[in-house]
Amino acid sequence: MIETAEADTGVVRVVLNRPTARNALTPAGLEDLASTIEAADEREAVAVVALQGAGEAFCAGADLDAVAELDRETGADFARLGQRVARTIEDCETPVVAAIDGPAMGGGLELALACDLRVATPRSTFGEPGVTFGLFGAWGGTVRLPRIVGDGNAMDLALSGRTIDAETARRMGLVSRIVDDPMAVATTLAENPLETMAILADRIRDRDTLSTQEQREAVAFGESVERHRDDVRALRE
């Protein structure tokens, strides 16, 4: 269900490959995704991990056939599993780009929220439709969505269950760019020094106090200067 493809561009593609189900995720699929992401993050000479869906959707979220069999206890376990997968994505040392082409709904949107960058095509759509049948995004969505789009927009999407288009998502800050080929963005990013990419991702993700973040930023900058001093000097010539 989860496949990887590595090009010579410094990008590893992690592909949700269940197109007939719009790449909906079962518990087994989530476990597979977590292990695949971890393996991709450990590869050498990789600057970017790109998460994408096969076929006409990015990801429809949780497989409803699996959800229909859950009870109170197993439902909570399923939510914890999705949260763990989202944290696995969020904790990657390598920057992770959600290359979104088509619908990213429910859990699919939540996985995209865990990525460092979300790049969409014009035909992409986004939503948290769970409220319409009595559920909600529980793979960290109630935490990450307001952090990224603000409380007002998060409440709107979560309480209405409405679907928004790519341009609306861009205006909200949910996606950074709308392009014809999101993978081209990942490839361009991978042209930068991979150590610096990893440092930047780590610094921007930091949720510690401002003073602690600044201290870590200064140390990381000093290390980068030491590593790339010759490159900087070459720019002056």
Look at the structure and give the mean pLDDT.
Answer: 91
Would you count the extended β strands for me?
9
Helix content: 40-55%
Q: State the name of the first-level CATH class of the largest domain.
A: Alpha Beta
What series of H and E elements makes up the topology? EEHEHHEEHEEHHEHEHHH
Which shape, going by the Cα principal axes?
globular
Count of helices?
10
Give the name of the CATH superfamily of the largest domain. 2-enoyl-CoA Hydratase, Chain A, domain 1
Tell me the number of structural domains.
2
CATH third-level topology of the largest domain: 2-enoyl-CoA Hydratase, Chain A, domain 1
Radius of gyration over C-alpha positions, nearest whole angstrom: 18 Å
- Low-pLDDT runs of 5+ residues are none
What structural class do the secondary elements suggest? alpha/beta
Distance between the termini: 51 Å
In quaternary terms, these chains amount to single chain
